Predict the 3D structure of the following.
Amino acid sequence: MLIKRVRGWEIPERMATDESVFLNRRSFMAGAGSIAAASVIGANGLILPAGAQETSDPTVDLYPAMRNGNYQIERAITPEEINSTYNNFYEFGSHKQISERAQALMTRPWTVTFDGEVEEEREVDVDTLIRAMGVEERLYRHRCVEAWSMTVPWSGFPLARLVEYARPLSSAKYVVMQTFQDSDIASGQRQFWYPWPYTEGLTIEEATNDLAFMVTGVYGRPAAKQFGAPLRLAVPWKYGFKSIKSIVRVSFTSERPVSFWEELNASEYGFWANVNPEVSHPRWSQAQERVLGEDRKIPTVIYNGYGDYVSDLYKDIEGERLYM
Ligand SMILES: Nc1nc2c(c(=O)[nH]1)N[C@H]1C(S)=C(S)[C@@H](COP(=O)(O)O)O[C@H]1N2
Ligand SMILES: [Mo]
């Protein structure tokens, strides 16, 4: 039973029609009450179009942030209208049209807990954290394991800066992040067969690589909720599921964590999940990707084109399952 129900996950839509229709209807029924209550009323009482920002974001003055020219790319930025209405955020449903439902997420006040193998455990208000870290803009590619891709102008700060701020002990080998858990607003979390809360992890070496980025904004403004406000990860050399959204906890461990996907189906989703066109997913090829908003496919590139930044991270562990 379990196996049958989870088959709709992360398989291309054309292969998933039956399960996803079934799941959508069920989770829509479950979530309908909270959508009506919270989706479209802004903090100022105005009715907002789906995906609009609350004008009250306390960090709004930090945007648009200065673009970091080291991360330019030769690809068109995915149009915001498309990107903000085609999202993976299973907390709000196991399909792509979750943007309206995600407006139920209350992103302020928001605290982030730092714990595990750190000098001192602490809880920090997200706005205090964002101001302490500062914000810049970077253009990054994003390659979902489902073989679609996009190009996004993220704003945020290097994860390395956050690791330094957290002051991990030298025994810490991994950084583990977790998403909020609240099934009253996130109807997907009532789907009990998923191992909530969403959990992801990186080695400290990966987390302190220049490319690893904590996202606070998109398209020159604070991030809309469906993108994983107020704090999400972007690790563009890995499949998209590593880029965990709406983070409430950052822990440091000496043992490798088991992430949400790995827990669900370790034969298809592993810890490393580096993009590699030559290593197929058990159920489909990873050789090409569908460009979101464009009617074409392009070849996928090893490490999603970021090999110059990250290939050294893996040179001594080539025996591991690096590409799944
Ligand atoms: N908490 C959480 N984070 C998540 C997901 C999710 O379902 N829940 N989906 C992941 C996947 S599979 C992808 S492709 C990206 C999608 O990001 P986007 O919606 O901004 O395109 O978010 C990732 N982060
Ligand atoms: Mo994904």
